[in-house]
Amino acid sequence: MKPYDRIKELQVRERFWRHHAFPGWKSFLLQYFDAQKTAWSPTDLAAQFCEKFPDEGFRVVSNIASTCSILENDEEILSIKVDGRNYYGRPDIFKSEEGNKKMIESIKLRPKPKAFSVPSTKKEHGFSKINANRSIEDKKTLMKPEHKTPNQILSRAEHNQKRVDDLRAAIAQRVLDEKTIPIDWVDEYNELSIKLKRI
């Protein structure tokens, strides 16, 4: 079984990009684009991969966007801009001008996927749905915060790496949404990146 077919199987069953057999976005996208005769934007790809997991979409868009920019520099993947959005594909699909025109027209006809947004960190407790017939004790029990003891505490390096990943994803999403990036995000990202390089 080819690596691409194995990845495709995993894609159906679970979040394939979290699986230990996932080769990384660079290798995966090169294989994926080999099997495609069209160009895709990071949002298009995330919409395909995260159909059942929209909360993962913004992170996947971020990973794909950064990977594509690296691959583009290697000239293994090329990009075109259609209606202000970048689409990526293998160089052979951009060869003929006529083929390129047809591809651009087909891209324009595609339905645009919804942009992924960073999920809210607020938990929904459902207090507004409390049945009026419930006793006061039941209501008090529902409103008590649940304290869980962590099984494991992340090391400072792991915590910093997670924060860097979150910042990278949030910054990439802001770029895709064509919004300004808060300076404190950039400063924190730079500070943590320097710290992680020292370790």
Give keywords.
Arc Repressor Mutant, subunit A; globular; two-stranded antiparallel ribbon; 199 residues; mainly alpha
How is this fold's topology laid out?
Blueprint: H1 3-13, H2 25-34, H3 42-49, H4 57-74, E1 78-82, E2 85-89, H5 97-109, H6 136-143, H7 156-176, H8 183-198
Antiparallel strand pairs: 1-2
Describe the protein's architecture and organization.
It is a single chain. The protein has a two-stranded antiparallel sheet with strand order 1-2. The two termini are 39 Å apart. 19% of the residues are buried. It has helices at 3-13, 25-34, 42-49, 57-74, 97-109, 136-143, 156-176, 183-198, and strands at 78-82, 85-89. The longest helix is centred in the C-terminal third of the chain and has 21 residues, at 156-176. The chain folds into two domains: 3-109, Arc Repressor Mutant, subunit A (Orthogonal Bundle), CATH 1.10.10; 154-199. The protein is 53% helix and 5% strand. Mean pLDDT is 76; it is low at 121-132. It is mainly α.
